[in-house]
Amino acid sequence: QLRLVESGGGAVQAGGSQRLSCAASPWSLDQYAIAWFRQVPGKEREGISCLSSTGSRTDYADSVKGRFTISRDMGKNSIDLQMNSLKTEDTAVYYCAAEPLRSGRVGMEECWRIRKKYQHWGQGIQVTVSQ
Q1: Confidence category of residue 121, pLDDT binned at 50, 70, 90
Q2: Neighbour count for residue 68 (Cβ, 10 Å)
Q3: DSSP E strands: which ranges in the chain?
Q4: How do residues 19-67 score in pLDDT, each as one tens digit?
Q5: What mean pLDDT value characterizes the chain?
Q6: Is the Cα torsion angle 92, 50, 105, 99 positive or negative in sign?
Q7: Dihedral sign of CA atoms 21, 61, 121, 13 in order
Q8: 3-state SS class at 92
């Protein structure tokens, strides 16, 4: 079972930057499609970014495009999300997710921003953006 643990959240002012990291163990992330989601109370969990197992394909929600960057640090076996130009509407609990290639539900060059596509999840971390 893949274990995912998020870190790096907290409070930040609007216009600032923050970097989230999601450490994975014990398996290598190069065998997984990965993604970041976020959720605010009363709303559906939103897929904001994903990265294919090869690293060749990324996808971003319009709400974060041009401001957020997803990446994978193979040395740390982590999934990172660099968030710049933060807005108050970015306030949410952020989750990392991963789906193994061996499940057959995702190809090497594919990634999805759809919740049901992922079977492994982190516990979530709060990001609060204030004016």
Answers
A1: very high
A2: 20
A3: 3-7, 10-13, 18-25, 32-39, 46-51, 58-60, 68-73, 78-83, 92-100, 120-121, 125-130
A4: 999 999 999 999 999 999 999 999 999 999 999 999 999 999 999 999 9
A5: 96
A6: negative
A7: positive
A8: strand
